[in-house]
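Question: what's this shape?

___
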Amino acid sequence: MSSLSGIDLELHPPNYPWSHNGPLSSLDHSSIRRGYQVYKQVCAACHSMDYLAFRNLVGVSHTEAEAKALAEEVEVVDGPDENGEMFTRPGKLSDYFPKPYPNPEAARAANNGALPPDLSYIVSARHGAEDYVFSLLTGYCDPPTGVAVREELHYNPYFPGQAIAMAPPIYNEILEFEDGTPATMSQIAKDVCTFLRWAAEPEHDHRKRMGLKMLLIMSFLTPLVYYLKRHKWSVLKSRKLAYRPPK
């Protein structure tokens, strides 16, 4: 009987029917708002989003007043002032999301040597994109017979090596959504994946709108190009060259 290797136990994420995967489908902005709530209340304790500022939420998932209120909940170290000293102030729309740790060394020390990745572009940086992140969040289970996992690690068949330092981050009713949506594990994972897709690709909706406009423009330009080809170049295409030797 041949033994199983680690790669034999690794699962590839299935292809989920995301509502924004269609050629003209936009992101679910209500889901983005719920996904931000999941990040803020669950993920932000360990994971940073260095490339996302509070102003990016305006007009996408929150109004300007709501985004300002979220920013003001954060105490930001700023300065120096006129006396050369640093000071704290309420956050502003231009401030980026706060980091959970001051430096990578502190992050490793708090997580048994593992460095929690920044989530700004995690969907674009992982093979499988949203499918992988969703499967990872919902795929924790007991290891199969014969597979040993260290005490501080957790078994997840979708993670390379199947042993991950992150404990299961979500479960049913871990939070209450502001809009009353039932906070099941799959709903939480789906919403945070949609939020992370928007964070990694904020131009998603704009790109698809521009693509539709380009298709409409090309539908008008194609007959014109065909006319130019058939009629303007017809003189060159139909000409006949005759050689008349000198007498």
